[in-house]
Amino acid sequence: MATKIEVQVPVERQKAAQAAGNFELEDLPGRLAQPDAAVRVGKTPKADKPLATVRSLNGITKLVPGQVIANYGRSESRWATAFQKRRAGGAEFHELLSYARQIIGLDAEGQLQICLMGHAGQGPCIPLWVPREEVTLTVQPNDIILRFDDMSFDW
Question: What is the mean pLDDT of each run of 10 residues along the chain (155 residues)?
Fold first, then answer.
């Protein structure tokens, strides 16, 4: 009998220093607007708003192998959208994903990974997956947390 691998990623809620403004799931470019699950973070857990598939932030942060979660605030959403426009709508999914504040995944072996990826819109986007024993997802009110299923870790 195979054992089911499942990891709950802890969440740290921070107060936003300044409200960056609201944005909707549909405002995200490309495939980012069609996650397998999504939640808008509220000031409290009761104020969280399910956007796709799950009912709570806990539902998104409970990962099984092949899942990746990404955190977008208003600023990150704008940067990804601007990059998509500069690419005339042809940006690769991992390039758009790279603008997330945090990217956390669970690989096929059940190892937590964080993705360190940067390009600042300059040159190629090179992802680096780093194994971690402990990871905390840091969120602020109005962030949208996205989960993508069936992901590989060899972009």
Answer: 83 78 88 96 93 93 96 91 90 89 94 81 75 93 95 80
